[in-house]
């Protein structure tokens, strides 16, 4: 079959957002076709056996859930269990790693004592709590708007003021977040713990005027209104698997190993499947790919291959005079925000057991039970940024560790569980895409992996390398993904985990909201093509919000079909 015009909507990309959109539309009676390039749906939100012959299902690219609304879980009947972590974070003091800051969600007194142990005053602990309480006033007010038509800035600001969050709005929305952090907190270590939420995946400094770090900070705190980041029981694949089930049960057609080659005007989608070139048409095309990928599929980036999108050669560009390499211009037909670089290295490890700490006052289970911050003081984060901007891998490299298996051992076989094995996911900050090219990727991957291991070992009482399990071929169970590796594996241009630059979850006053697509934040310049992934406004992370909002835009455009 070379052509099929029976579909009401074609979804390009079968990641979790595309599956969510498919489920909503199919439940509303739409004939939906999902085209996924990979051999399985789920995109980056999957679990995988990363090490040959080892029965451990790792959440390879994404790992925690905060932004997935309860509303979507209930609307689609998803059987998902999210486990709460008792500990928020543990941060060894890089000046004296025999002590560290443990933030215990269930023991305020213990947390206060931990502040004192790292030399922070009682006033610092109270300021830390007050800072997050103020932030929560704002996030609780804004969270319900994430799955509703967009508000203009002035209305969102008024909503915040009515919730008593006027000061938090000023701190988080109007001025660089670094100003508020440095004003309210004094400890270099405590400031760094707070700042990390503004920098994960975003190459920025605390006081950057474009406020990308502020938007990142808001999205890390807004989930559920509380900012809690939970562990998906069964791994991230359990989340995308349930979305796939909901879409299929509702009647959606999902094709895997179906690579879209072009998206043309008139709702025409060309793709290759089963060794044949095919074409499908529909009134609506929902793009669950990064906006930069959509630009290429629409012919707006002629001659660009997947690993040569604009900006890939930024590391060799002339210095701008600020220590930051210039990023090449993108074609005038596309939005430069679509091409912002990712800024992380991802490392997955499987250990015989948790490592011992230099800090004897904290058990490894507690330290690794939340987010383990390494070399992430305020000063270290800024120094790392400057070193990376100058073209070098930071030393020490700021890192964060998550141990899925402590909260959810089900991702390990019974044998691995009985042996005490644990998984670690390391997220290295300030490793921007400009450091990587197709020519140096292998060497840079090795350099970044060494930097991650060195950073970990700087706060552990034993070398992490000695604890690595081995696969069936005797190789250490460690895998490292650069931004280019991520781009090639799951189609995130420049390794940007947000699919491009982030946007506020509201629009500027005067911005047109005259169509359902614009009101839901999913519009492109073609009225038949909608964004339904992380590149949509209010997209990013494993949230299904982009998919939900694109589906709502379609249904609002033809309300008679909404309740079909």
From TrEMBL:
Q: Which domain of life is it from?
A: Bacteria
Gene Ontology cellular-component terms listed = cytosol
Q: Which InterPro entries match?
A: FAD/NAD-bd_sf
Which Pfam families has this protein been placed in? NAD_binding_8
This one is known as Phytoene dehydrogenase-like protein
User: From which organism does this entry originate?
Assistant: Arthrobacter oryzae
Taxonomy, top ranks, is: Bacteria, Bacillati, Actinomycetota, Actinomycetes, Micrococcales
